[in-house]
User: Fold this.
Amino acid sequence: MEMKIVAERTKLWADKPSPYCPGCGHGIVHRIVCELLEEMGLADNCVFMAPVGCSILAYTFLNVDVCQPAHGRTPAAATGIKRYRPDTFVVSYQGDGDLAAIGTAEIVHAASRGENITTVFVNNAIYGMTGGQMAPTTLPGQKATTCPDGRDVKAGMGYPIRVCELLRSLGGVAYLARTTVHDAAGAIQTKRAMRKAFETQVRGEGFSLVEVLSPCPVNWGMGSLEALRFVGENMTAYYPPGEFKVSGAEV
Amino acid sequence: MAKGKIVVDIDKCKGCELCITACRHGVIALAPAGRANVQGYRYLEVIHPERCTGCAMCAQMCPDAAITVWRESGKGKA
Ligand SMILES: Cc1ncc(C[n+]2csc(CCOP(=O)(O)OP(=O)(O)O)c2C)c(N)n1
Ligand code: SF4
Ligand code: SF4
Ligand code: SF4
Assistant:
């Protein structure tokens, strides 16, 4: 019987190893974004906004146009590109430090203005690039270099921010979902949600965002399989996956 | 005859084992300790090719896009 290819390396990745640590969720999410850009014929006209954070390194191996704004200003710069060239497909990629700490104002207002861009929000509950400091999304009790005994919400460290729940009330938000990549079913679901978000932008419906729960084994001090379990058990318990908004209506 | 086949791009692999957690058929495993690729990682090997169904779950999990999957035709794309 004849065999046909059902999965292969996206042509949008350069022919060299990716810059990320073994088992890093950024690789899975980049791969899904690139597969969709290719499948949907959007790659030639795409600008990939890379944040400050580990995924700043996207430009080193992605064969798409990459723009790298200042920390947290990713949605603001994405707004400028999309408004000046509305035919450009804009992927605004952010980590949780970039989006939910220094860039909180930018994401809230881009969403509220209904900017027609797609935000890919990788929530790994830590600052990866700078060596594992506590992020706004670090779970209660989770250890980081700046909370070595674990995040203590009562000791002034505050509560983890649920970004989808925070943004859902904003009128400009057309598509909003949270997914996980801790197993293959989650990765497939992530691709499905991301496709819907991309279609939302293509149709010009407004702001779309997919939050992806994602492992950072190195800064969590875990092996890659233990990190998958942490996402599947601890992160999904605090950050329930699912769709929050479709075509501007709350689900 | 196996219904599927995978090929691993050994030098892109980082030995993270995410793909192994996704394979329900025991097709893949890391190379024995001491064997490393150009990056210095133990890499993925196919140990039971005859069991592969071509389901592509391994490829869904690979952060390094190091796996190509073939499946008997007539079953659609994953
Ligand atoms: C204005 C400014 N402040 C602080 C930093 C230092 N810095 C670099 S990356 C980063 C946080 C990265 O965390 P996150 O956004 O969660 O991305 P990750 O690396 O985890 O993917 C910080 C604080 C910076 N580069 N610029
Ligand atoms: S530090 Fe964490 S987020 Fe950054 S590349 Fe390594 S595993 Fe990924
Ligand atoms: S295609 Fe399916 S059966 Fe074959 S190695 Fe991958 S996960 Fe295992
Ligand atoms: S998931 Fe990819 S990088 Fe990790 S061990 Fe498997 S083939 Fe190698």
